[in-house]
Design brief:
alpha/beta, Rossmann fold, eight-stranded mixed beta sheet, 8 helices, globular, binds S-adenosylmethionine
């Protein structure tokens, strides 16, 4: 079902313009855009400091990134979300709560290479990315080899992907891809809330829904091997 466009979407996006680093795509073809366009972000100018940078891809309504940014005030956060309707909610939240260390990219993750300097991101959070079951859309899974290659360019040496999902098949698929693409995987759990990694866990909007339905949550950390 198509989501209805938010009321006054454009003026509201404009009101959050100071938080928005990129929107849309530089050309129609995503592959061509990723290969041919470069607008590297200057973190020092954006955040006014030289702190470490972390990123959430598919930030949804922004609950996770807002809480994380409050817990880690010395870290700078980039929140990536393709859906404008959704990113608006997240941006308005950051504005309302006056969180200084979060900025947004309203773009598909496919074109992150246009904006993100190599070896500049310490952690990437993938929270409840769409599992896209079946083989037809496998390439669009955010843990497919083509995305892992993008993350490998952005991540610092020893940088990490932290993934959570309710989908066991997607989780098993992701573990396989990490191993195949040169990541070492640790902190693997198929029942996050019952295990040792529950402490300090920030429950996302989707996680709350799945947990309310009694679904266990899978989590792992995939570290880029040097
Ligand atoms: C299932 S929701 C999870 C939202 C949030 N992370 C949570 O856990 O509550 C997945 C989000 O990822 C976004 N998304 C999916 N594919 C994306 C892509 N290629 N680039 C950027 N965002 C994407 C969707 O628009 C959606 O908001």
């Amino acid at each position: 079902m198509r989501m209805r466009k938010k009321r006054n979407l454009e003026p509201r996006m404009e009101a959050c313009g100071d938080l928005l680093l990129a929107r849309g795509r530089p050309c129609k073809n995503l592959k061509e855009a990723a290969e041919n366009f470069r607008f590297p972000l200057d973190y020092g100018a954006i955040f006014g400091n030289a702190g470490p940078v972390e990123m959430e891809i598919g930030c949804g309504n922004g609950g996770f990134i807002c809480e994380l940014a409050k817990r880690q005030p010395e870290t700078n956060f980039l929140a990536v979300e393709v859906c404008t309707n959704v990113v608006l909610t997240a941006m308005e939240r950051v504005k309302r709560e006056k969180i200084p260390n979060v900025r947004f990219l309203n773009i598909p993750a496919e074109i992150l290479p246009c904006y993100i300097p190599a070896r500049s991101v310490g952690k990437i959070y993938l929270n409840f990315s769409t599992p896209l079951p079946g083989s037809t859309h496998a390439r669009q899974r955010l843990t497919s080899p083509r995305f892992l290659e993008i993350y490998k360019q952005m991540l610092t040496w020893g940088g990490e992907i932290v993934q959570k999902t309710d989908s066991l098949p997607f989780f098993e698929y992701s573990l396989e891809q990490y191993a195949l693409c040169g990541f070492s995987v640790s902190e693997v759990t198929r029942d996050l809330h019952a295990g040792p990694y529950a402490e300090g866990n920030i429950v996302t909007e989707y996680e709350a829904n799945f947990t309310a339905k009694g679904l266990p949550i899978c989590r792992c950390v995939a570290k880029l091997c040097g």
